[in-house]
Amino acid sequence: MKVGLMFGGRSAEHLVSVRSAKTVAQGLAAAGHEVVPLGIAENGVMVDVPTAEDVLARRDRVAAPAGGDIRASYRTLLDADLEVVFPIVHGTYGEDGTLQGLLAMLDVPCVGASVVTSSVCMDKVLTKRVLDAAGIAVVPYTTIARAARDTALQKARDLGGPWFVKPAVGGSSVGCTGAPDEDALVRAVDLALRFDDVVLIEKSVKGRELECAVLGPRGDLSASCIGEIVPGGEFYDYADKYLNDTAQLHAPAPLSDEDTARLSRAAVRAFDAVAGSGMARVDFFLTDDALYVNEINTLPGFTSISMYPRLWGLSGLALPDLCDRLCRIAVDEHRAHAATQSAIAAFIDEVAGGG
Predict the structure, then answer these.
(1) What is the pLDDT of residue 233?
(2) What is the model's pTM?
(3) 152-159 and 182-192 are packed helices; what angle lies between their axes, rounded to 10 degrees?
(4) If one looks up domain 2-112 in CATH, what number appears?
(5) Contact indicator for 177, 165 with CB cutoff of 8 Å
(6) Beta strands of 218-275 (E only): which ranges?
(7) Per-residue pLDDT tens digits for 78-111
(8) How far apart are CA 89 and CA 112, in angstroms?
(9) Taking the domains of the chain in order of start, what are their residue ranges?
(10) Pick the CATH number of 140-203 from 3.20.20.140, 3.30.310.180, 3.30.1490.20, 3.30.750.24
(11) Three-state SS at 169
(12) Has residue 244 got a pLDDT over 50?
């Protein structure tokens, strides 16, 4: 297949996206696909294919051409004549449903979750509400809107500390802070408000941080083996993930067969609850007496150390096979969606003709 590999983008995870794209490009090529790199600069401008190829070779940031226009630059995508697009654009304008919606409007198959699932899972508050409604345990939480910042302290007191504070929308732990006391809580809320208008305040949970990779079409999802993150600091933050190299990644995680099966079932159930398809990494906290779903990441990292491809590799699905499987799921689901739309159109014509 001729696969458009989209990477870069406008979020704080731009460089992580470039590194992920390098890995995906290798996997797609090894699976026999023709890879067309589609790099997006931090101002949203899509560069030409030769420039994107050079960026991948250097694993550097995507630099926008002088005077580039976002709308005109997407002619690169339109002229590429692609069979499927593999977006590895992390964060805002990449995994939040906006890019998925653009590709849907262009009638181009897109690897990964749907518009709705991507949007819900990008918002940590919406994710919690959906999972809670489905009877899936989440860490106790409250929320603060920017306009109601002054209510943060009382809401947090009602929840009970210590706390963990996050922007409602974002990735790679940007703006996330632990708050052991009320003074730290105020600082943490102000930091999170730099990145979003809504802040999520969770009751701090001490437990094992476990992850499971999920793959498949909607209704037929499979789970990988389980991985464990052992943070190098107090928690697994941006620096721990990408700068300091102090976190330990254990895969498979040392778990009993019973706990492994329990987490695998919970990962599939959580992704299914948000109408998931394609891929996701489901993150958990496992305490002595509870299992909580922390987040669902619908566009997980594909860097050389990322858990998603690593867990599938340990589960018997090598990187080329994983990339190929994701592309074929996208094409099959796009074809099924087109058939549904044709059936709807035929029904409307039938009703109109009969009337």
Answers:
(1) 53
(2) 0.90
(3) 120
(4) 3.40.50.20
(5) yes
(6) 222-230, 248-250
(7) 999 999 999 999 988 999 999 999 999 999 999 9
(8) 11
(9) 2-112, 140-203
(10) 3.30.1490.20
(11) strand
(12) no
